[in-house]
Amino acid sequence: MNELENLRCRIDAIDKELIAVFEKRMATVHDIAKYKIANNLPILNQGREEAIISKVSESIKNKEYTDSAIDFIKDIMKISKKYQEKLILEQK
Ligand SMILES: C=C(O[C@@H]1C=C(C(=O)O)C=C[C@H]1O)C(=O)O
Q1: A GO biological process this protein is involved in (predicted)?
Q2: Which atom of ligand 1 approaches the CA of 44 most closely?
Q3: What gap in Å lies between CA 79 and CA 83, rounded to an integer?
Q4: Relative to the CA of 32, which ligand 1 atom is closest?
Q5: How many angstroms separate the alpha carbon of residue 68 from the centre of ligand 1?
Q6: For residues 55 and 48, is the Cβ–Cβ distance under 8 A?
Q7: What pLDDT, in 10s, does the model give residues 80-92?
Q8: Which of 12, 24, 36, 92 is the most exposed place for a label (fewest CB within 10 A)?
Q9: Dist. CA 73–CA 91, nearest whole Å
Q10: Is 3.40.640.10 the CATH classification of the domain at 3-91?
Q11: Contacts of 44 (CB under 8 A, 6+ apart)
Q12: Ranges of each domain in the chain
C-alpha cells in the first residue's frame, strides 16, 4: 500500500468512529426534541450554543484547529436543529 492509500485507510477508520459518536449525539438530540415538544420549548437555545462553542475552543489541544473545530461544532448544531425541526413537523 502506498503512503496516500495508507493515510486514506486511517481516515476511513476515523470516520467510522466519528459516525458512531454522531449517532449517539443524534439519539440524544432526538430525546431533547421529544422533551421540547412535550414542554412547548423552542428549538434554538442561543446561550447553550455559545457555551458549547466556548467549551470546544477551551478543550481543543491543538490550537491550530480551533477555527475548524468551531466551524465543525456549528455545522453539527445546524444539523441537530434541522433534525429537530423535522421531528416537530412530523408531530403536527
Ligand atoms: C440540542 C439542543 O437544541 C439546539 C441544538 C443544540 C445542539 O445541537 O447542541 C444546542 C442548543 C439548541 O440551539 C438543546 O437545546 O440542547
Answers
A1: salicylic acid biosynthetic process
A2: 13
A3: 6
A4: 1
A5: 19
A6: no
A7: 999 999 999 998 6
A8: 92
A9: 27
A10: no
A11: 81
A12: 3-91
| pLDDT of the residue at 30 | 97
In single-letter form, the type of residue at position 81 comes to K
Secondary structure in 3-state letters for the chain: CCHHHHHHHHHHHHHHHHHHHHHHHHHHHHHHHHHHHHHCCCCCCHHHHHHHHHHHHHHCCCHHHHHHHHHHHHHHHHHHHHHHHHHHHHHC
- Ligand 1, atom nearest to 28 Cα: 1
Kindly state the cell numbers that stand for 43.
Answer: 428549538
Residue tagged 496516500 (cell numbers): 4
- CA-proximal residue: ligand 1, atom 1 (nearest): 29
**What is the ipTM score, two decimals?**
0.99
CA-proximal residue: ligand 1, atom 6 (nearest): 77
